[in-house]
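Pipeline run #58 for the internal structure catalog. This entry was flagged by the ingest filter as a single-chain record with no existing model, so it goes straight to prediction. Upstream metadata was stripped on purpose; only the residue string is passed forward. Reviewer on rotation: M.T. Logging verbosity set to normal.
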Amino acid sequence: MKLGFVGLPNVGKTTIFNALTGAGAAESNYPFSTVEANLAAVAVPDGRLERLSALYNPKKITPATANFVDIAGLARGASRGEGLGNRFLAHIREVDAILHVIRCFDDENVVRAEGGGDPMSDRETINIELCMADMEVVEKRIARTEKAAKGDRALLREAELFKALKSHLDEGLPARSFPCPDEDKALVADCPLLTNKPVLYCLNLSEENFRALDTYKPYLDLEKAAQEEGSAVFPICARLEAEIIQMDEEDRAAFLEDLGMEQSGRDRLIHISYDLMGLMSFLTGGAPEVRAWTIKKGTKAPAAAGKIHKDIQRGFIRAEVIAFDALMECGSMAAAKEKGLVRLEGKEYVMKDGDVVLFRFNV
């Protein structure tokens, strides 16, 4: 899972990136202080691993990882290559989901880019630039499809579909909100569109507004707009998160309790991103290693086995599966087998979140 922080200059992308990852990337009070993308890998929080390790006493525990990318700030005209536009867009194409940071705090010591200040307007600026970049991709797709059609009704229909998508983008609406029949969704998904990536709007709030979200109008307005396009909103106070990441575990727990939160911003962000992207984890256990593996919801057993090694997928015979909670109740795999709770599943089995699996294969 590769998540990219995107937004106008000086909205707090790098501050949030550092607060969530502890990467220590340079922060500056001037636009475009981030030129090259900053990268950091963070362990996906999963309390099941520690409990599973108590059964196996493994040599190592390996959580799934989320990769964060701090991308250079975007300016108007980025879709035409102005500012750092080309580099900005290239980095966005490489991520799986966009974390769109929007500034919702006032600080006279932090310069506002483009004289902005309205969160809805800042959101629209980014969305329009991404839509314009996508229009160029769609126009090329239309030209290529029409040239290849030569009376082929299927291709002519495809060209009409992308013409409708172009009109949708031309209104400043993202591809992810484009209404199309189910049979055409694969065609749209096959086109490398920036606005078809999942988006999580990260509102960088002051501490005062973070503590009063229910009455903070910019948050409520953005939440409504996000729902209309099938996205989500993630409120965060970068200053608070920067403090949290420096604390030891005991102080961090007390601080979060004072805020009325059970998890840090990093943990909440990863879990929300998992849901947004339709991801989940299955688990493997043994003396050498206890490990979590990230897969898409709906993945079948052979494809899940391929996450471990392609040879296991090619030689897949069956999967020995037990739900995590059932295994914990039994206390051991041997006890679970005695109770008949370990199932033998074949190639059509659809994996479930928290499945503890042993794949049988022959190469």
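catalog note: The first helix runs from residue 13 to 21.
catalog note: The chain is about 45% helix and 20% strand.
status: ready for reviewer M.T.
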